[in-house]
């Protein structure tokens, strides 16, 4: 089959998020063809280039989500007609269509959300979800008719529509308090998220020719899949190992309330529409699954697929657990405030009082400027808590806490970092899927972790779990395992067995291969794939395609677009079969 892989800031770029996961998936499914539709986030990301692509990637189309000139006109490569004065050069009818659709979109965002008994936002009413969807697809159809909307989405008309919606009766309190500068920011952010509407990916030779769209994340990455489904009936599969809506909440906390409220409403409505239209949704863990259900995802569509990780680099460490230093604790990851290394250092101070021979190795580099500042703070705290100690009057003092990075002679790789200690510690206060813990499990190491994100789901009963921001509990758990080597060994062996059973690349690829076949078996065929003899390949045409009439699911809006040779005439190799030709052939 032919898969349209949709990414944002990820595969095939070298520095892309989830790029490694997508690359393993594509390489593991060599029997399928992949068309990659990638949205880049920065000029730097594009300049770094792509990872080497396997032969099953037949086409790569890219588009930028960043401004080329730093102004409001949008990046080069995004369609849209703009005059020198900043006015969008559409006709009167097109301007009226845009004003109506964008006004409906803005009204759906500004409407006060209902609250559940606990005070949290309740699920959006169906009428508001339909209002948002109608406006979204109306803008998409206008963009297709007018060669893009880049100028219109940042026009004065768009800002005035937002202002009217914020001042209308029934608007939420933060929306009513929005000022013009804040509305300009919201309009710019919405324009950035809706740039895929202006792309030329949605013709019959583009996304209309694929059998299945697979979005590697939610949010803007899934928007081309929604449009392919709307224009051509292509089924959509959405995979989220980190929920984009959750990411938005965590990264935009410093914005004014009006901006946060309107953008949260936009991303929430987009997520709900994505979940409603997707054929299957595959969260990576129960933590992401709960977020998706809270945002309106149907439980019947959810299938948890843990991320696949390569266990090969960790095999040697996993098979030689006796090589670890029995007194060394290891922390591996990116240094940032969410990892709460401060609590880890305070916990280690308590550990040292009970186990004077204990040592702590913190392995990892800073995550951006904020991470660099946090790393400096942690080093100063370690120097304060643990003054250099010397074994004798003529020995050089040594600190029991070391800050290191992989790639050097002592720690060439992450596997060497895990192998250097008998116990791996995670002290995070915020965590999605704990990939570092799974790597430690591949190495056969016992773990002590904080109860955040998908930690409990990942380790099962193969490690100790303590509350976050509790240095005393963290210290007690570490001391208990340091003093019991037999228990450490049992937990490490169980952890390795669990990781090899649940979190390997082979398991992940097999799961998605089955989901692809399942989705296609319930979807009208869009093209007929022939073998060398000119006959349809097995399962290339669902059995239901031979039955005339509407046989799709009740929620479907398309009928069979292809069929066997006796129903549609001689098939054309890898071409789209329209509903009209199907009807004519059936006659």
Please characterize this protein's 3D structure.
By secondary structure, this protein is of the alpha/beta class. Helix content is 42%, strand content 11%. The protein contains 22 helices and twelve strands. Strands 3-2-1-4-5-6 form a six-stranded parallel β-sheet. It has a six-stranded parallel β-sheet with strand order 9-8-7-10-11-12, with helices on both faces. Helix 3 packs antiparallel against helix 4 (126-146), helix 13 (341-354) packs across helix 18 and helix 16 (435-442) crosses helix 19. The radius of gyration is 27 Å and the shape is globular. Residues 69-87 and 551-587 have low confidence and may be disordered.
Largest sheet: 6 strands, parallel
**Number of helix segments?**
22
How would the global form be characterised? globular
- Kindly estimate the percentage of residues that lie in beta strands according to DSSP: 5-15%
Unreliable residue runs: 69-87, 551-587
Number of strands: 12
First-last Cα distance = 28 Å
Task: State the share of residues found in helices, binned by percent.
Answer: 40-55%
The oligomeric status of these chains comes to single chain
CA radius of gyration = 27 Å
| Average pLDDT metric | 83
Strand order of the biggest β-sheet: 3-2-1-4-5-6
Structural class: alpha/beta
